[in-house]
Amino acid sequence: MSKELSICIVGAGSSYTPELIDGLLAQPGDRLSVGSIRLTDINAERLGIMAGLTERMVRHGGRDVEVRSGTDLDEMLAGADFVVTQIRVGGMDARYLDESIPLKYGVIGQETTGPGGMCKALRTIEPMLAIARTVERVAPEAFVLNYTNPSGIVTEAVTRHTGARFVGLCSGMPAMQAELKRRLADAYPDVRSYCVGLNHLGFIHRILSGEKDVTVEAIERLSAEDANAATDNAEMALVRVARLLGAIPISYVLYYLTRGMRVAQARDADKTRAQQIMAWEEQIFAEAADPKTVGKPEALKHRGGGGYSDVTFATMAAIANDSGQEIAVSTPNRGAIDGIDDDAAVEVVCRVDRSGATPLPVGAIPLTFRGLVQAVKAYETLTVAAAVHRDRRLVNQALLNHPLVGDLDIIEPMMDEMLAAHGLDYQ
Prior knowledge:
By secondary structure, the protein is an alpha/beta fold. It has helices at 17-25, 44-60, 73-77, 91-100, 114-138, 151-161, 172-184, 215-229, 233-245, 254-257, 259-268, 273-289, 300-303, 308-320, 367-389, 392-401, 408-421; strands spanning 5-10, 34-40, 66-69, 82-85, 143-146, 165-168, 191-198, 201-209, 212-213, 248-249, 325-332, 345-353, 356-359.
């Protein structure tokens, strides 16, 4: 790879930006040569803090990379090869509403799952479509690597309604696969694993050692180890689900399969996740604004995001180098999974090269969790339609399909309150 790449980060005022920059600086030049970083955000104050930290991190790392920042999206996108999107419409105040209001109705409040995830999608899809269309106009050859949540729904909205070259990323499933490979290394050489499902509703359903399928024995081995080591209800629940379904679920699946416990835990908690993050972000931005800070703020370790940059630059390098690396990402189904529309977004292992992400064939979803995935997929597709058409009827239809809601007597008053709280006018 001879060309130096230009990367634009949209939503660069995010507290995740130092994680991205740290990951970028760790990339070997022969894998990913970056000559320019552009940072843009509608919040000029947060952008200024993160731009200053980025410049210091780049200098401290001894890298000859130009850093530019500004609030003009067109200007920052010009000449970009890759665009990383990580916007949060409404900020943490909106997330707090998404988490707290559903609990009043006996439903989990979460930023990517259930009515909270829906409201985040309804706020976010229109701005993301606008960003994607701007990329199409200003940098039509650029690939958009998206972290904006709910990532799967956003991916479906953008790929259905624009021509942008768009890939939905999440560190959750790739981190699970890496951990799986590490834990099985002593017993099984050359472990490869494959997943089926949606973003935050994924299952590792096939594990290979070389060409041998070791799924059943690997799950039994891991489950036995975890059952012996488990210290809390969530860990025990994951063990129980893996054995029951014959597949290893991402932890978000527990919102669906242990819903009573999850609602009770959320109601009993002193703070919502949004309130916790608000406190941590005060520390992160205080550190980031300090001229002496030249690396990731220490407080960022509380925020999460481990593996965030790993997936970003693995995907970027696979496209730039046309390597065909296998990576779990969100992309249109294109016939990979039976029973899911071709244009609907799914999260599966894809071959990633200069053409983007091509899903590897999966076939039928295992029957043990097929209904759950298909129900949530119906909800997601209806949510995209509701956001595009600003249609309250579609909002209700989506939540009737959602396994965590499905009750019109709850949906109507809950969504009256949530839509009003977010200032969303849906007829």
